[in-house]
Specification:
single chain; 537 residues; alpha/beta; Rossmann fold; pyruvate-formate lyase- activating enzyme; Serine Threonine Protein Phosphatase 5, Tetratricopeptide repeat; seven-stranded mixed sheet; 20 helices; 17% strand; globular
């Protein structure tokens, strides 16, 4: 193997290029790539010069995208702009993030550009897609190596390997080509002492741009905000999720003291007002969670926080919910997934009781805590009636906002194996077409068209049947949620209509009329908007 001296590392979050038709009522979130900032911090601690390019946020039009042709949207920088950054920085290593398969074509394209600009640079890719598709990904002549799963130390070790500082016996969770042969060193080690890691190198990102766009995963009610991760690993075995495969089955958590130290740093150095806690299991260790929440209360920081990645429902009780509320939490997201206990237990293998969901939502409502939920439609083994049960349950449980997704067989998951083994999916589908808003699974029970219909019906719940538009609901919450959708998707017909209904409930008739007129600009045939305008006149 030829070794080289490595000084400069460029880490890239790729743009997102996707078919226009798939983005009619959706937009990609725009938030700091915290995984890259963790890797950058560790590389800097080991004397490497590091630059991060978030190719999405650097595009002034990233919030709405740019048409590449009549059928294709690009959210992020153009190829020429990316090429210019690489040329100016002259990196020895280009590391590309590919968290989900949807972005693989864009990640692959980054490697191609890097090799065109600097043929001798080393290209590395990390994330879920390359982790579970090593052989296919490394067949690309423009890619030199893959980091599997938890990437902090493995990325550092791979770079040291390419420098000739480490041999195979010191590596873990990496794959690369050596003398035209594929070398795969499985992932066996996970970082047990997460406190030993330096805090993410957020200063390498244009943070003010994220605040200006303000379209993170979940929602941010205050600015400045940032994402934070306080634990890794998941002990559950849900067949659709890759978290445990990527981060390990053993739950590992930073100490409460370490988390509070980072929050203190964020408040004092960046003026952070809101934290988006992206853990898979923030409340799994109740004692640790209570320590963190008590620390936030005692410090009297002027901050709020949310859990956009979901929170383990079985860990929540009245004491925990009250502490969550008191510490400034503005909303919790509950990973409910299905309204059928059979689907949850026998198919998804999710450790959740529906009765517990109802109990938690009821208690959260009592103390005034905003609730959001995730639901899935179209998992193999589910019946049409059980999909209807999920919609009925979403209506019944009455969370403030329901996030519906169509089931996607993610690489590496048990669900993906089931789909491939039973020919439930088209094995040759383009990875950029795998969206959570479009059906790709068909079984003897349902096809893609039925799931798409249920998805369309489900999304109307948030707008036409929003619980905050009903008697006793929080209309201001509804207005916030509808406005956020409109910022993401300016042509969203239902969001404009529902916002008009919310204004009407507040007796803001002029504002309501403007919204319904906007609906008719989007769709002149909308009967509900026409009816409401007639009544107002």
């Amino acid at each position: 193997m030829n070794t080289k001296k490595i000084n400069k590392v460029l880490l890239i979050e790729p743009p997102k290029t996707v078919a226009k038709e798939l983005m009619k009522n959706a937009r990609p979130t725009v938030q700091p790539p915290i995984g890259l900032t963790y890797i950058a911090a560790l590389l800097e601690a080991n004397k490497y010069n590091v630059k991060i390019l978030d190719a999405i946020i650097e595009d002034p039009l990233c919030w709405k995208g740019t048409m590449l042709d009549e059928n294709t949207l690009r959210f992020g920088l153009t190829n020429d702009q990316i090429r210019q950054v690489i040329f100016e920085y002259q990196p020895d290593v280009v590391g590309v993030s590919c968290v989900i398969s949807i972005k693989y074509n864009d990640a692959k394209n980054i490697c191609k550009i890097a090799k065109e600009v600097m043929p001798d640079c080393i290209t590395i890719m990390g994330g879920a897609h390359p982790t579970f598709n090593i052989e296919a990904v490394l067949s690309d002549p423009n890619l030199d190596g893959v980091v599997m799963g938890e990437g902090d130390i493995s990325c550092l070790e791979m770079i040291q390997y390419f420098e000739g500082k480490l041999g195979h016996d010191k590596l873990d969770g990496v794959a690369f080509k050596e003398n035209k042969e594929l070398v795969v060193i499985p992932k066996t080690r996970y970082i047990q002492d997460l406190d030993s890691l330096p805090f993410p190198a957020r200063r390498l990102l244009p943070l003010s741009r994220y605040w200006e766009i303000n379209l993170p995963h979940g929602e941010a009610t205050r600015t400045p905000w940032t994402t934070i991760v306080t634990s890794r690993g998941c002990t559950a075995s849900c067949i659709y999720c890759s978290a445990g495969l990527l981060w390990g089955k053993k739950y590992r958590a930073r100490s409460a003291e370490n988390v509070l130290k980072e929050i203190d740093f964020l408040v004092n150095n960046y003026g952070i007002k809101e934290l988006l806690i992206e853990d898979d299991n923030f409340t799994l260790n109740k004692q640790r969670t209570i320590k963190i929440l008590d620390g936030i209360i005692e410090k009297k920081w002027d901050i709020s926080w949310t859990t956009p990645n979901g929170i383990a429902i079985f860990t929540l009780d009245t004491k925990m919910l009250e502490k969550i509320k008191k510490s400034g939490c503005s909303s919790i997201t509950l990973a409910i997934e299905s309204g059928s206990q059979r689907v949850l237990t026998d198919i998804m293998k999710k450790p959740l009781k529906i009765s517990k969901v109802e109990e938690v939502v009821k208690e959260a409502k009592r103390i005034g805590l905003k609730t959001k939920a995730f639901f899935m439609l179209g998992i193999p083994g589910e019946t049409k009636e059980e999909m209807n049960q999920t919609l009925d349950f979403a209506r019944k449980v009455g969370v403030d906002w329901s996030g519906f997704n169509i089931t996607v067989p993610l690489s590496g998951t048990e669900l993906n194996d089931i789909c491939i083994d039973n020919n439930y999916v088209n094995a040759n589908i383009n990875s950029s077409e795998i969206q959570f808003t479009s059906g790709r699974i068909h079984t003897s029970e349902f096809d893609e068209e039925f799931v798409n219909q249920k998805y369309a019906e489900a999304n109307k719940i948030n707008f036409l049947e929003n619980p905050n538009l009903k008697e006793g609901g929080n209309v201001d919450r509804a207005i916030f949620d509808f406005k956020r959708v409109i910022r993401m998707v300016p042509e969203h017909e239902l969001a404009h209509y529902a916002l008009g209904m919310a204004y009407k409930k507040k007796n803001l008739t002029t504002e309501a009329i403007k919204m319904w007129q906007r609906v008719l600009e989007i769709n002149p045939n909308n009967k509900l908007a026409k009816k409401n305008l007639r009544v107002c006149k």
